[in-house]
Amino acid sequence: MCELLALSANTPTDMRFSFHGLTRRGGATGCHGDGWGVASFDPDGRGVHLYREDAPAAFSPIAAQVASLDLRAHCSIAHIRKATQGVVALENCHPFHRRWQGREWVFAHNGNLLGPLPATGLFVPEGSTDSEVAFCWILEQLNAADADPADLDSIFATLVRCAQQLEQQGTFNCLISNGSWLFAHASSRLHRITRRAPFGRATLADDDLSVDFSELAGVDDVVTIVSTEPLTRDEEWLPLQAGEAVLLVGGEVVRHQPPGAPVTPIP
């Protein structure tokens, strides 16, 4: 399948260290060589910088260049692909992107959805993946519910219901953001770590590269990284259990759906 990566921070923060570790798994230390992508929101959350390529990230000069960019954001999402549905093509690379209610929305998925997927209409997939169909359907549910993206209780409840319904079709680990918050749902594999003062040193699991975050972060900085598998070898990552979901704002978990909660159907 694929691997996911996301950042939520209370101050504009780059994801270069984590993204470098992820790219190693895109064909070097891992088999996810069918494409990659990064979406980094402007600090005001209104615009998004999106980079995608249908090539192995580990050997891509473009991915290396993106990894060197100082893309500081409150929310960022990245993805490396191992194709299960859909051919290897640029239009099938995550993150996927749409505009709704005057804001940019970004989505990435790890998993495989089987059987008939919900129909889409208002938002039409550009590629041939189950993931993009799911993203379009989620946006349609938000639109049908007239959801207010600023109403965290409402938006979280709707996203949880969508994720619960989709994971009945297969494996649905996902990330979605509109630049103000980050939603993460685990169906099988997802981990998170929150870094705050006192900051320490971390070493990538897939490369001999370490960073002392005390030299880079301010005393009030809070940064949460979400990843399919832990990206560092010397930090404690918290696994999300199957069915667990979180909503992050400024690096903090502001809404939480515990595993084992009853499934609430979409009206």
UniProtKB/TrEMBL annotation:
Pfam entry (one): GATase_4
Highest taxon of source: Bacteria
Molecular function per GO: transferase activity
Keyword Transferase attached: yes
Gene3D superfamilies associated with the record: Glutamine Phosphoribosylpyrophosphate, subunit 1, domain 1
PROSITE patterns, sorted: GATASE_TYPE_2
InterPro entries reported in the protein's UniProt record: EgtC-like, GATase_2_dom, Ntn_hydrolases_N
Domain spans labelled Glutamine amidotransferase type-2: 2-267
Signal sequence coordinates: none
Keywords linked to the UniProt accession: Glutamine amidotransferase, Transferase
Cross-referenced SUPFAM superfamilies: N-terminal nucleophile aminohydrolases (Ntn hydrolases)
UniProt KW Transferase keyword: yes
Protein's name in the database: Putative glutamine amidotransferase
Species this protein is from: Cyanobium gracile (strain ATCC 27147 / PCC 6307)
